[in-house]
């Protein structure tokens, strides 16, 4: 299991893209044992983003500082329009900040993406409807300047479908899959690149509550087995608390991070985690922060 950063009571900031995915050993941690702080895998300093529209300039991110430790699972949560997805796009190299710097493993995000160090999963699975689940999972390996031979790509895709527990649906078309299954194909497609970092923008937002919970548990299992660094954008407080080791809370007016909350829960999480007093405390604290964020101010 990846080693999470040591827990604090106050706000704080916080392996390669080859053909074979590295699977971490099964977790053996004591449930609440504090662990050494991991080095930052993603770093942002003074990041601001401006958008121009009709001759007007709007600041959609303002002075973002963030450190995401290697092998950690963190969430970005906040009201609509607070810049969560914009920040994720900056981390992915899809958007250049107007001010400030971002690095992924010491590289500019665009360069890290070229090296297949970054995997992306969005709310919509965006699968190619004429390709099978297996072919969709292999797709990113077969395009671009670093294309993998087809037989190798399909073997890799099969491995990833097994990881997301979809090996039985490999020959099915997207139209034959449920929403949750399509999202698992999208996750397998991203993981097939063996990225160091997985960036996820509300990947379960369109799913029903039960499927969403099942997907969350599956994602947690994937994280524990692979040791990837995961950044998740979500509107769900429960989801953020259950999955994350740290939650970065964003607010509007201007869009910024108002607090980073370490989630002090057992390393292994299951259905009983939702009933722990610490879960309820974290959930209530985040709800208060989100109410403040909607008001565009901090108490």
What features would you describe in this structure?
The protein is α/β, with parallel strands linked by helices. It has a domain at 40-117 and 195-294: P-loop containing nucleotide triphosphate hydrolases (Rossmann fold). Helix content is 30%, strand content 22%. The strands form 2 sheets. The protein has a 6-stranded mixed β-sheet with strand order 5-6-7-3-8-9, with helices on both faces. Strands 2-1-4 form a 3-stranded antiparallel β-sheet, covered by helices on one side. Strand 6 (197-201), helix 6 and strand 7 (229-233) form a beta-alpha-beta unit. It is globular.
Gyration radius from CA atoms, angstroms: 19 Å
Main-sheet strand order equals 5-6-7-3-8-9
Q: Helices and strands, in N-to-C order?
A: EEEHEHEHHHEHEHEEH
Please give the alpha-carbon distance between the first and last residues.
37 Å
CATH superfamily of one domain: P-loop containing nucleotide triphosphate hydrolases
The CATH architecture assignment of one domain turns out to be: 3-Layer(aba) Sandwich
Q: How many strand elements? A: 9
Helix count equals 8
Main β-sheet: number of strands, strand sense, barrel status? 6 strands, mixed
Rough outline: globular
Q: What's the mean pLDDT score?
A: 84
Report the structural category: alpha/beta
What is the strand content? 15-25%
Detail the poorly predicted runs. 1-35
What is the share of helical residues?
A: 25-40%
In the CATH scheme, what's the topology name of one domain?
A: Rossmann fold
Kindly provide the name of the CATH class of one domain: Alpha Beta
């Amino acid at each position: 299991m990846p080693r999470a950063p040591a827990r604090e009571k106050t706000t704080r900031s916080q392996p390669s893209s080859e053909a074979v995915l590295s699977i971490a050993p099964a977790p053996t941690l004591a449930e609440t044992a504090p662990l050494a702080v991991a080095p930052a895998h993603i770093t942002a300093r003074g990041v601001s983003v401006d958008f121009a529209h009709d001759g007007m300039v709007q600041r959609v991110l303002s002075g973002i500082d963030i450190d995401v430790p290697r092998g950690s699972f963190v969430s970005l949560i906040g009201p609509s329009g607070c810049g969560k997805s914009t920040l994720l796009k900056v981390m992915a190299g899809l958007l250049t900040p107007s001010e400030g710097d971002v690095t992924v493993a010491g590289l500019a995000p665009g360069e890290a993406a070229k090296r297949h160090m970054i995997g992306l999963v969005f709310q919509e699975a965006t699968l190619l409807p004429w390709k099978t689940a297996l072919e969709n999972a292999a797709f990113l390996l077969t395009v671009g300047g670093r294309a993998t031979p087809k037989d190798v790509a399909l073997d890799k895709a099969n491995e990833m479908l097994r990881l997301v527990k979809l090996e039985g649906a490999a020959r099915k078309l997207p139209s034959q899959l449920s929403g949750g299954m399509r999202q698992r194909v999208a996750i397998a497609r991203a993981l097939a690149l063996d990225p160091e970092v997985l960036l996820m923008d509300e990947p379960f937002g369109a799913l029903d509550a039960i499927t969403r919970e099942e997907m969350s548990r599956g994602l947690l299992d994937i994280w524990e087995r692979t040791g990837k660094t995961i950044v998740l954008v979500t509107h769900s407080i429960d989801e953020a608390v259950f999955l994350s080791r740290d939650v970065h809370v964003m607010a509007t007016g201007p869009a910024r991070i108002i607090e980073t909350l370490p989630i002090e829960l057992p390393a292994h999480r299951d259905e009983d985690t939702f009933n722990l007093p610490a879960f309820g405390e974290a959930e209530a604290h985040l709800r208060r922060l989100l109410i403040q964020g909607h008001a565009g101010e901090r108490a």
